[in-house]
Amino acid sequence: MRGERRKPRFGGLELRSRWGLSSDLEVICNRIYELADKEGVGVVFTPTITLSKDIKAHKLAKLCVLKYEGSSYVFLSRPLSNSIRDIKQILHYHVPKVMSIAAAELGEWIQLVEMAEEAAFNAIELDFVAAKLLSSRYYHASRLLIEVANEVASVTRLPVIAKLRAYPAPSVELVDKLASIGVGAIVLTPHLTYTVGSHFFRIHSTSLSRVALSALAEFLSSEPSVQLAYITDEVWGTYTTLLRSFDLVLYDVSFLVRHVKLPQIERKRVPLSWRSIPSGAKLVVEGSEAAHIAEVCPCLAIPSKEEYGLVEVDRKCVFCGLCLDVYQGLVKYAWEPVIEEGPVQED
Ligand code: SF4
How far apart are the CA of 301 and the centre of ligand 1, in A? Predict the structure, then answer.
């Protein structure tokens, strides 16, 4: 029909817009998804999940900040920190939803695909970057990636998307091969992942995101045979020519920081493990500081009224760890209901 604009498409999905939330966003809270929905998000990728049992055994924080200066930041997040139960919370949003999965063995990939179909997600993302944390066999093993993608594409009718590292850029041969076996689109992430013992880390850095994007110029000029998305740490609304050449732009920490207020941060020491959150504990904050601590919470779980004594964080808290990290010493654990006595009144 004349005048009717065609909706953008990505990997077989019809989208509302050409931006979305990436699977590198580990914090699942209603407020963030509601804000994204309100702002016209085109597609939502769930945080990547796996079946590996030992990963789900601990309750650990998911986010910490190494540097924050407004338009420049370095965050760490904890990959694979959500379960199938967690990601099902976003199923009721009326945007296309892509379930992101990672596994060490072929049988586990297939099991996860079955779970995505059963839960009625609209597409599957094979997160080969997170898979490298689970099995070193995925390092430099294009053959293995192709084998997994081929098997998955042959057992599912859902569109299949692959997630690869943006730096170094994937080879054109790998991308062509993935396209030829049914992978409809590729997501490129500039985020580096690493392990320290049993702890997994992902680096989100504005500088790293820009460097990785520039390094993709040659790859983009080869006109790859598949649709491409880029996960960016650029400030919202900054679109360089290179970024515009992608079919889809995805956000995670950069979306989150738009909706919280952080102080300037510059940390000298990089954590070697994730903060452990004691089982059954609630968080409490110093009432006199509550108003500004509340500004860092992406879920609006901290009452923002200044009060006397300790104030309990409410049930919207998803234990992302951001307030514990940014306001160390002012946010504490509590096991019992907090009953604080007010100041003694002088007669
Ligand atoms: S209260 Fe703290 S730990 Fe809980 S969701 Fe908010 S920032 Fe995260």
Answer: 6
pLDDT of residue 309: 83
pLDDT at 2: 46
N-terminal to C-terminal alpha carbon distance within the chain? 81
Q: 65 and 30, same structural domain?
A: yes
Domain total of the chain: 2
* Same domain assignment for residues 292 and 214: no
Does residue 233 lie within any of the structural domains? yes
Mean pLDDT of 98-113: 96
Which residues make Cβ contacts (< 8 Å) with residue 104, sequence separation at least 6? Answer: 50, 52, 131, 134, 135, 137
5 pLDDT higher than 80? no
Q: Is 140 left (phi over 0), alpha (psi -120 to 50) or beta?
A: left
Look at ligand 1, atom 8, and give the residue with the nearest C-alpha. Answer: 320
Query: For residue 13, how far is its CA from the centre of ligand 1 (angstroms)?
Result: 33
Instruction: With respect to residue 320, please indicate whether it lies within any of the assigned structural domains.
Output: yes
Q: Is residue 215's pLDDT more than 60?
A: yes
Domain boundaries, position 313: 277-334
Same domain membership, residue 248 and residue 281: no
Q: Are residues 135 and 73 in the same domain?
A: yes
Residue 87: count other Cβ atoms within 10 Å of its Cβ: 25
CATH code for the domain of 196: 3.20.20.70
Ligand 1 geometric centre to CA of 225 (Å): 42
Q: What is the mean pLDDT of the chain?
A: 90
- What residues line ligand 1, using a CB cutoff of 6 Å? 283, 296-297, 299, 301-302, 313, 317-324
Indicate the pTM of the whole model: 0.92
Nearest protein CA to atom 5 of ligand 1, as residue:
317
Considering the chain, what percentage of its residues have pLDDT values greater than 70?
A: 93
Q: Are 337 and 299 in contact (CB under 8 A)?
A: no
> Closest residue (by CA) to atom 2 of ligand 1?
323
Compute the distance from residue 302 Cα to the ligand 1 centre, in Å: 7
Place of tokens 């964080």: 313
